[in-house]
Amino acid sequence: xxxxxxxxxxxxxxxxxxxxxxxxxxxxxxxxxxxxxxxxxxxxxxxxxxxxxxxxxxxxxxxxxxxxxxxxxxxxxxxxxxxxxxxxxxxxxxxxxxxxxxxxxxxxxxxxxxxxxxxxxxxxxxxxxxxxxxxxxxxxxxxxxxxxxxxxxxxxxxxxxxxxxxxxxxxxxx
Length: 174
Known about the structure:
The chain has helices at 40-49, 70-83, 108-117, 131-140, 166-173; strands spanning 6-9, 19-21, 24-26, 53-59, 88-92, 125-128, 143-147, 161-163. The protein is an alpha/beta fold. The chain has one domain (6-153, 159-163): HAD superfamily/HAD-like (Rossmann fold).
């Protein structure tokens, strides 16, 4: 099988908007809080048409913390898969203290997706809005793209590219 180019995407803050809760940007807890990030449909459609395999790799520690059910998280993933040209969603349900191999910044989810779909990491990208996303992409051998949201005070060092909208994502990858 020939290797494929892929775009790995974080979920919260890249695919769907985050919600302010407990003093931080968090995943939505139910569909009343779920909203798409501006431009996600057009950007991913363009990438898909250009031959990129699209895979989501997301940390979902709220499940381990007891703040959200795994069923609700998986309902979001079904919704995402139905609405966007995403091939698969990989999720880590552990918290940082679990020290698992799948939780970003470790590259476990990317490596699993890469093996399952024969991904050429050197021709692929990891897109995220946190340093852990960038670190995971670099560890897997991807080029990395940091999505900076309006009001972000911190720049992430080490990303190959920094963008402020998903419209810029398609331009970089093409």
